Amino acid sequence: xxxxxxxxxxxxRRVGRHVGRRLAERxxxxxxxxxxxxxxxxxxxxxxEALGVGALAVQADVSTAPGVQSVLNAARARFGAIExxxxxxxxxxxxxxAQVTEADWLNNINVNLLGPCYGCWLVGxxxxxRGRGKIINIADWAVDRPYVDYAPYFVAKGGVVALTKxxxxxxxxxxxxxxxxxxxxxxxxxxxxxxxxxxxxxVPLGRIGSxxxxxxxxxxxxxxxxxxxxxxxxxxGGRRVS
Length: 242
Fold this sequence. Notes:
Blueprint: E1 5-8, H1 14-25, E2 29-34, H2 38-49, E3 55-59, H3 65-79, E4 84-87, H4 102-130, E5 133-138, H5 151-170, E6 175-182, H6 193-202, H7 211-224, E7 232-235
Parallel strand pairs: 1-2, 1-4, 2-3, 4-5, 5-6, 6-7
Helix pairs in contact: 1-2, 1-7, 3-4, 4-5
């Protein structure tokens, strides 16, 4: 990974920022995008640069093709190429079916599905032209066992699973495309203690996952293998079988 360039959408905070830090520690230059959180993005870049690598924050809406293209252009201008793409940007929110609006559907499809589609398409073609690259999408463990009241979210995340398999074939053999299906990693801030405890009890390994669990899986896909593509890897503590 030393000297390579990694693009992480939604990389200014939470899991994306932790992944960026871990990859920067391994010598990768980090490119992140932001829509409004400029201060967080600049702080993340300062953190990455302190580890001795290059870092770049680009303001863009990566739920649009022009937004993804602008990030790709900026990354190429600064670092020459992108070797790794992590499609991490996502939204999550409760949407009871009787109250769902057209905007709910569009927001989820645009951010959670079309964003990764545009990344796989535009960055994937860039990688294929260069002869190598790795793409990691972020799906969700519960796509096959969706919760009630989250229809727009799970429809979009289900699309990410299909996208991963399609792009693995489209971009082979130069580019590998895989997805991670996280279980409970970071709890929403509105979860009370009782809810968090209930989530922990539902996980066979008895704990909520951490951003480090996701980061280590990404490191494996980037550095540990060149013979895995089209896979959806659950990182859920066994939640899918409980």
